[in-house]
Specification:
homotetramer; alpha/beta; 14 helices; 41% helix; 13% strand; binds flavin mononucleotide
Chain lengths: 369, 369, 369, 369
């Protein structure tokens, strides 16, 4: 397998051929017309890398820290729901791959593998838990406590999903989880939180979210969460300077710039555009991460140059899992590592700190010379 | 039907398959090269939505008012001619659908259903009458009086059609109304205003318009109309700040920014571009509406954020009518309602008032950061 | 024929089907990669028309004057070489069509119909003579004298062709005139000026030009020409403000902005872009014309709004001639007339004077609002 | 052959048909997604030529000097590795063609023809030697000495290749040199420098470079090189003003702006964009050359206008060699010469000095008028 698949796009093409339609569409889709899905990628390409030469790049390191934890590469695994549709051991395979390369794995609230399973399957992997807040706050509080108990290192509170976005393919497919899979974090007790059923009217997952997630969330709930846990809180889904500042005020330890892989509202800013705005507003007062449309080493390099501390990847790992389970996921991470290493070598950067703001420039810049 | 058609574009594709060529072309066409037809849509996509999070969006309302009348959604039905080519009960079906969702229906002067029929078929629907001024001012005055008598709530004076634009497909098809249909507002008395005949030289509808509409209209005629009626007057087709200001001076109650669905002159500004210019000029002194190329919830959201009070839809309703008569039209309105609701939920807007100017930004903005 | 061909593009497509490859390629081609050929058109589309309404457009006139001569429409026929490849009576048919619609016809030096034939075939048509200056100045002087004698009203000195541009199709075809045709203005005496022969190495017409035209021309030669003739001199092919000002200084009566239909150097400014620059520089001190890529009424309207006095058309007439001889050429002119009339009616312009600068705006303008 | 291939693109298309896949891919590829490969070309097209007329262009010369040596044309041959895959006498054919037209040929370190062979096969050609610095400095020093001894006129130190970029096709093909070819500059003694072997993991050439080239190079090594040789040193691969200034300081005699034909990092500036920035920084203090995506006369003209002293061509010569050996290479050079000559004639430039900065303008310029 791995020998003929040499880049993330190869994996995507291969996954497109082998995944069942239902799962493929769920993984691949963006909201409505999917313009942002494409723009996430295009916007990254509108930045140029300004390589510097005749610097000693014989010894290179991609090591950095995230929330104080050392990672071998400045990119990690974003939370994506229901990874067992891609490969039997879904989230576990993904988490083990992240561990092998030495970076962070983020587990989704609506995973098909539970908090505890991940902890036991990937004990040495740095793990974050992505939190959706349920109307039933007891459910939420229990998730937080379980993540703490299982040795997760941070809570990633996703703020952009009071509801789920409209994804046309899921509507057409009346998307639902295959019968043998469930929301693993709710396997005991809360039956309705566990199942994603076919419904008369459309996407099963959207109905699940509509009935259980809490759309009345406000900044006060961040305060509630902070009181509930000693874990650092990262806010995921921020797209404006305004919200980033509110996040800082609310005590967030990290801001994760994201448009949820273009799955919520079509027509929001591409994440790399939002990144610049937010980096400027935050001005170093907390760590800033980004995801959305990153699929090669140069993409990651650009985000780092713009000031992101980590880049996260969603779909690329799903393609890796679909093509080869844990080995596939690890291949993806290794491809990206190799590409980023090459970009650094060929741009005069021996360490992450060398990837400074002046190493990128907007394409439009030249039309103003 | 409705279950597999999940967005306006699905309806458009389906309508394209089932409408007779003659009618399809008449409905679909824009002027000459149809560049503006495409740009109306593209220009909307050049705006980004800046979503805000952690605001309570558990209870949302799309209610607003138009000329003092409460409507459930901030979008309504634009006047389009001759809807009975799409479905047997044409305009009536459309008007009933608008009523069911709780918004305004605008009847065209050159409809295939008369003022009085609409009033009796859709008595509870908020109705506007779109007026073309005929050379024969007695004809015009009678239309106005009949609209008043039939309980219409406003006159929409279309200013952009002294003639009709050049639509190549209609020229090729020598477009004319099917024999069983007529201009329903002229069924008694004025035979020549009723018929659209095949002619030797080209589009029958263009010849109709050329022989009957008054191309000598000036701002004085707005004054004449104001004296004639107690109904509020909305000027439809304004594309420049200059004309919007003249409209205000002439006592218009509303300005309806429109390029007539790109059907008059190819190469005029996309309507959303004209909207910004006009909102700025009008500066809150009257209500401003817009139409042209809107086909999903995010599109409507953007126009509202830019300052439009209502967005109107032309072709989308024709596709709905063609695919399923009244039910099809209602599906269209419900799809848009659902999409707008989703956009509001995912952008932190619980009510129309929350959709403020800072929630949108031009794509180009980022290249200036 | 004419009934199914309703726009210039229809004629172009039809001509593409029926013209012999050799002639079609010669007519259609632009220089090398033909990027400017496309950009001439695209650049026009980057301008928007800002239509004004409620102005009396019941009586409209397109009349204007060119060099003091009244014409019925603000557009005319550009010089194109060797029109008899398109239809047996080539330039004569074209000149008669121009006369019928009431506008100017420009005869090329390298026409397949002579100065005298045109004068006798189209005596009532306003005629300009396009001049190429031959190394043999006696040849040139004789052309000028014959044009004067034959009642031509102006000399159009083409400045952009010391050589001919590289047109790949002509190189591949080893383009040459069909044997029964010759350079009609040289039928007596100067045999080598008459023939375009196949050559070993490439395009016959390019070799013709290389051996006969004078590439040593300077502004002094304009002075020489002015002394030689009482006719007004129009400089055709100007693309920069600098050259326009030199032209004014040299006593030109008109500046004809043109990139020779994108046939000389690929990568020069689209003519409508050069027009703005030149209008500004000339500042009303002489008449300014433009050609290049104009193919519908709105195109012409835009150039007039930008300040051009006349728009000229090259290829569109060739397509007309190919499809229907004189009638075809006349159809082209009538289509453009109808389209321009429609554009004026729908933009609030009753006369050419109403087409002012504020009626157009660059597309980019909106991104700066 | 030559008669039907009339431009560089024709040669490229023909070469694509006849080269073995392995070689074609190696020659053609750019790094990863190959966006820069396309942008190198597109960016050149974003500049317009502003032609001037009525200047005497009857006698034209393209002569200029490079590092004090007179050349007949302002463009030369860039170093490309392993030309014997294209035609049996590879680099020799290329060097002879360059000599025939009167310009410079640059020999790659990793050529399939040795320094000494080139000197004896093309004794009259102006020759530069492109240097890669090997970890084994004795190897490097010996190359320099051999180039000096063989009468090469300059050292072109390629600074952008501490490693080779990631080229997906080579990874897929596990690219390696055909068995009968070797790195000719290393045929004696250093066996491992001579062979490019298939490897388990990917591109053979990349492994060759990784194991032998020195990625610890710094500006100090330029100083070392200067002490080693009396030849002028040109730095090839500079893409930023910062590095250009460091190059000046280090005593470079020329700066060769290049992104290595888009083969190192995808997403760096197109070379013509970098050129402007660097010309400005260098401000005449040394000669500046450029390569990357140049494939017609107008392209070269634009770079000269922007301030480049020479333009270099890589792939075009490979296509020429593939289609017709030395004759093919010469045809390429003659096509470009003819096209540049035509561009000069049609832009009012009789000599290279006439090609001034004001003769080009960015496309975007017009949107600011
Ligand atoms: C199939 C799928 C499921 C996702 N599920 C979640 C989720 O459960 N929680 C969450 O916060 N984000 C979720 N996301 C968003 C990702 O965390 C991430 O923001 C996005 O995938 C990044 O874009 P990329 O896929 O282009 O890398 C999901 C994304 C995808 C594609
Ligand atoms: C088939 C058709 C017929 C129309 N007839 C009228 C009409 O009779 N009166 C009028 O004022 N506008 C008419 N319009 C313009 C519409 O009111 C509206 O401005 C336009 O359709 C909005 O663009 P959209 O179709 O992209 O939504 C018509 C438009 C179409 C497509
Ligand atoms: C086939 C052809 C022949 C031409 N011959 C001449 C000519 O003899 N003299 C001249 O000044 N311009 C000549 N031109 C240029 C035209 O006068 C005019 O500038 C150009 O065609 C305008 O562009 P358009 O074809 O897009 O309308 C020729 C153009 C074409 C297409
Ligand atoms: C097949 C190939 C091999 C190359 N080998 C070398 C090389 O050995 N040394 C070097 O400095 N540049 C090398 N280059 C880069 C060229 O010198 C030059 O920068 C590039 O080809 C210019 O772009 P162009 O191919 O678009 O003209 C190579 C380029 C290609 C395409």
């Amino acid at each position: 397998m791995s020998s003929s698949l040499v880049c993330v796009q190869d994996y995507e093409e291969q996954a497109t051929k082998i995944l069942p339609r239902n799962a493929l569409d769920y993984y691949r889709s963006g909201a409505t017309r999917e313009i942002t899905l494409q723009e996430n990628k295009d916007a990254i390409k509108r930045w140029y890398i300004r390589p510097r030469f005749l610097r000693d790049v014989s010894k290179r390191s991609m090591q950095t820290t995230v929330l104080g934890h050392t990672v071998n590469v400045p990119f990690g695994v974003a939370p994506t729901a229901m990874q067992r549709m891609a490969t039997p051991d879904g989230e576990s395979a993904n988490a083990r791959a992240a561990g092998k390369i030495g970076t962070v794995f983020t587990l989704s609230t609506i995973a098909t593998t539970s908090i505890e399973e991940i902890a036991s399957e990937a004990p040495d992997t740095l793990r974050f838990f992505q939190l959706y807040i349920y109307k039933d706050r007891a459910v939420t509080a229990s998730l937080v406590k379980r993540a703490e108990a299982a040795g997760f290192s941070a809570l990633v509170l996703t703020v952009d999903a009071p509801h789920f976005g409209i994804r046309l393919a899921d509507l057409r497919n009346k998307f639902t989880l295959p019968p043998h899979l469930g929301m693993a974090n709710f396997q005991t007790g809360d039956e309705k939180s566990n199942r994603v059923n076919t419904s008369a009217g459309g996407s099963g997952i959207n109905e699940y979210v509509k009935s259980l997630f809490d759309p009345s969330l406000t900044w006060d709930d961040v305060a509630w969460l902070k009181r509930l846990t000693h874990l650092p809180i990262v806010l995921k889904g921020i797209l404006t300077a305004e919200d980033a500042l509110l996040g800082l005020k609310a005590g967030a330890t990290g801001i994760w710039v994201s448009n949820h892989g273009a799955r919520q509202v079509d027509g929001v800013p591409p994440s790399i555009e939002a990144l610049s705005e937010i980096i400027k507003a935050v001005d170093g007062r907390c760590e800033v991460y980004v995801d959305g449309g990153f699929s090669e080493g140069t993409d990651i390099f650009k985000a780092l140059a713009l000031g992101a501390r980590m880049v996260f990847l969603g779909r690329p790992l799903l393609w890796g899992l679909a093509c080869g389970g844990e080995e596939g996921a690890l291949n993806i991470l290794n491809i990206l590592k190799g590409e980023l290493d090459s970009t650094m070598a060929l741009s005069g950067c021996a360490s992450i700190n060398d990837i400074t703001k002046d190493m990128v420039i907007r394409k439009d810049h030249y039309s103003r010379l």
